[in-house]
Amino acid sequence: MDRRQQKTRKAIFAAFNKLLEEKHFNNITVQEILDEANIGRSTFYSHFETKDALLKEMCTDIFDHIFSHELHSETSHDFSSSDHGLQEKITHLLYHLKDNRGNVLGVLSGESGELFMKYFKEYLAAMFRQYPECIRQDVPREFALNHLVGSLAEAVKWWIGTKMEMPPEEAAEDYLKLIGYDH
Amino acid sequence: MDRRQQKTRKAIFAAFNKLLEEKHFNNITVQEILDEANIGRSTFYSHFETKDALLKEMCTDIFDHIFSHELHSETSHDFSSSDHGLQEKITHLLYHLKDNRGNVLGVLSGESGELFMKYFKEYLAAMFRQYPECIRQDVPREFALNHLVGSLAEAVKWWIGTKMEMPPEEAAEDYLKLIGYDH
DNA sequence: TTGATAATGAACAAAGTGTCTGATATAGTC
DNA sequence: GACTATATCAGACACTTTGTTCATTATCAA
Fold first, then answer.
1. Is there a contact between B160 and B109 (Cβ–Cβ < 8 Å)?
2. Span A50-64, average pLDDT
3. Does A173 map to a domain?
4. Is residue B60, in this structure, part of any structural domain at all?
5. Looking at the predicted structure, is the pLDDT value of residue B21 above 70?
6. Fewest CB within 10 angstroms: A55, A101, B147, B178, which?
């Protein structure tokens, strides 16, 4: 890819990210992104169709990176204690978030959090599907899966909101307690 | 209140509601509300400062109605089995949603669901605070409360999304199982 | 009936969007 | 280094949406 394109794309992402920490997605104008990234109007539109497309691409970038380990790691975890495998995976995920590569923090805890949660949950669902034994059998499967995904997403959001005071290990352990996997 | 105002307000709410079922809040223009409600531009702005204010007022209206029973009902439930009190309360809440007075359905399950969830959760938090014994003591209180609220909100949203196939009693019971209150 | 007030409709400035232009600068290739 | 392709630029453009204003008309409550 042309260096100029890389540079522009990077500048747009950085500007967008900074603005997202300050204000809600809906209240960010293309003009503000232009000014912050210091690029021309037509340049922006040659990279992204709309502001929504920019958001989507950014989410993909961020979460693909964060979950690359979580999802593609060989499922070689200890099957005799598979819940520990999950606990480690969640701990790892939280550490990853704490590293804050790609600036997920501002994005997930910020005013536009809801928008990102949608994408975040898709990745979480894929993760949980790797642990079918965690999904209770005495309630409808989709109901149970939705519970796991939704509550973990909410827990992560809350954790970020508290500036990640709790250590990742503790947060992961407490979460597993709450969903009833603390044997 | 002047009949004219009532009529206008009602028309605006109805129009807004209809539009919310069709498209996302962000993509609804004031002009569309005006046309749908068949009122003048200046009339709208004499009732609501902005589109956001309209959303907020609508949420208050809807949830105040739904939770009026839940929250103000004398906490005269059987303390010896207080979790059953909660189960009944949730069941009651689901029935209320099924009645769909105020058209919560389109609103919670629609494209703009995220916006309403925020308000919905505030009411749910108030509800759970009436059942302190449901909040686990072995994890930080706020973490536990956030889990209850977040997961119930997600469960309700999921339930609505499935056209409320499961009977309220069953959904409430399953939810309590998932949060570990199925003794 | 009458005085108060709500609704009307039309016009308005301001701000934002997405498109298009021709000129300029810079990248990758030979 | 020269050459070609193309990314960026600046700015203008038509268009949509927003929120305000005002004079006029219709409706309410007493």
1. yes
2. 90
3. yes
4. yes
5. yes
6. A101
Using the Cβ of A167 and the Cβ atoms of chain B, whether some distance falls under 8 Å is answered with no
Q: Which residue of A has its CA nearest to B113?
A: A114
**Domain count of chain B?**
2
pLDDT digits (tens, 9 = 90+) for B139-151: 999 999 999 999 9
Q: Is the Cβ atom of A49 within 7 Å of strand C at any atom?
A: yes
- Check whether residue A10 and residue A81 sit in a common domain: no
- Is A183 within the bounds of a domain? no
Whether the pLDDT of residue B90 is over 90: the answer is yes
Range of the domain at A167: 56-178
Assess contact for A57 and A40: CB atoms under 8 A: no
Give the integer Cα–Cα distance in Å for A67 and A124. 9
Measured N-to-C along each axis, helices A141-161 and B168-178 cross at an angle, to the nearest 10 degrees, of 50
Residues 6+ apart with CB under 8 A from B71: B123, B126, B127, B130
Q: Is A174 in contact with B117 (Cβ distance < 8 A)?
A: no
Cα separation, B35 vs B57, whole angstroms: 20
In this prediction the pTM is 0.82
Residue A38 burial class via C-beta count within 10 angstroms: exposed 0-12, middle 13-18, buried 19 and up: exposed
| Polymer length of chain A | 183
Write the pLDDT tens digit of every residue in A136-149.
999 999 999 999 99
Query: Is A24 among the domain residues?
Result: yes
Please check whether residues A21 and A42 belong to one and the same domain: yes
B169 and B93 within one domain: yes
